[in-house]
TrEMBL record:
<keyword id="KW-1003">Cell membrane</keyword>
<feature type="transmembrane region" description="Helical">
    <location>
        <begin position="96"/>
        <end position="129"/>
    </location>
</feature>
<keyword id="KW-0472">Membrane</keyword>
<keyword id="KW-1133">Transmembrane helix</keyword>
<dbReference type="InterPro" id="IPR003474">
    <property type="entry name" value="Glcn_transporter"/>
</dbReference>
<keyword id="KW-0813">Transport</keyword>
<feature type="transmembrane region" description="Helical">
    <location>
        <begin position="174"/>
        <end position="200"/>
    </location>
</feature>
<comment type="similarity">
    <text>Belongs to the GntP permease family.</text>
</comment>
<feature type="transmembrane region" description="Helical">
    <location>
        <begin position="251"/>
        <end position="277"/>
    </location>
</feature>
<feature type="transmembrane region" description="Helical">
    <location>
        <begin position="221"/>
        <end position="245"/>
    </location>
</feature>
<feature type="transmembrane region" description="Helical">
    <location>
        <begin position="336"/>
        <end position="365"/>
    </location>
</feature>
<feature type="transmembrane region" description="Helical">
    <location>
        <begin position="28"/>
        <end position="46"/>
    </location>
</feature>
<protein>
    <submittedName>
        <fullName>Idonate transporter</fullName>
    </submittedName>
</protein>
<dbReference type="Pfam" id="PF02447">
    <property type="entry name" value="GntP_permease"/>
</dbReference>
<feature type="transmembrane region" description="Helical">
    <location>
        <begin position="298"/>
        <end position="316"/>
    </location>
</feature>
<feature type="transmembrane region" description="Helical">
    <location>
        <begin position="377"/>
        <end position="400"/>
    </location>
</feature>
<keyword id="KW-0812">Transmembrane</keyword>
Amino acid sequence: MTILIVLLCIALLIVLISVFKINAFLSFLMVSIIAGLALGIPPAKIPSSIEKGMGDVLGSLTIIIIVGAMLGKLVAESGAAQKIAQVSMGIFGTKYIQWAMVLTGFLIGIPLYYGIGFVLMVPLIFSVVYRYKLPALYIGLPMLAALSVTHGFLPPHPSPAALVIQFKADMGLTLLYGLAVAIPAIIIGGPIFSSTLKAIPASPMASFKAKELTEEQLPNGFKSFFTALLPVILLAAASFLPMILKSDSALFPYILFAGSPSIVMLIVLIAATWLLGLSQGKKTTEIMTIYSDALKDIAMILLIIAGSGALKQILTESGVSNQIADYLQDVNAEPLFLAWMIAAIIRFCVGSATVAGLTTAGIIIPLMEHSHTNPNLMVLAVGAGSLMFSHVNDAGFWMFKEYFGLTLKDTFKSWALMESIVGIVGLAGVLLLNIVIA
């Protein structure tokens, strides 16, 4: 009966978000209250449980998400993203221009949140399309596949970062494993798949053709690439250095401090403030305005994450999570595949990769702990599942359709199929990694 209640509550969450179009944060709060009452938690205890769940998940994520948004906004506003695109295309040339777009999307996708990266990259995509007279989807889909994969697989993006915290994974190792899984997913879902779409016409709306910065206004290539890659460099170093240093080394405490994801993001933001801001002639007040504007882009993401933490806490305190884990242990399926499947189903119903990933976490954590599944790989399995089945209830689906001027049918044939390809390839990569590192 308790499992049925949970399933009905999840179904209610899906209906509230996708059918009645209720704000995801409010939907999480309402479903958390209903779930608490239905599962027998004393009514007086439900508010404190909700507050605890929200505080626990936000306490460790707020700095990462907010500072990451500020960094992404500065990368966009400074022209660093545009410079990365120019340099990449200069290196690869017209013949291998798809790979230039993949590299650009991947590098820009690491510091930028998906929506910002999407809006920023589309004008660059069409500038290449017009310059070289190439099919828009052939050029654009590889870049957007890279953006999508970094959003679903790699910290410090909100959903993977939140999953790292909830699964008690290692941020640096998850990033390294994620890179190994992301590369084949991007290649297959991007350049290989888009090569089959050359015949699909695309016509961007005039309002989507953004003005590019002049060459004199752009930061140089070193500043642009270094800033975009610095989070990866620091997180990777924080994972590897403890392996080669003695535990009694005087440097050990400082490496642990500097390797904390929150401190890493703060270090990168300070470096970016100088490299992409002050040294480019921007005033401090102008940079702070950019940072303030960035908060508007991620306010709802923070609230959705908080809401998911509330529901997770209700499920935990009711004891139903353990009952679900006991039930799922009898299901003859690999836990990583099961987590991927649950995330994929929720993504299909809700349309949000973030909601799908965070909702799955509350269900799968007890099973993961009982089965001793690698938490770093579990983050990636859930992330891959959360990218599956993008369709009409996903904002990204409509952004792609409108920006590229596609019909509904062609959007399904291109965008929706690409998202499912990267999700399936991501799962295959996770399962293969699980065999290798087991």
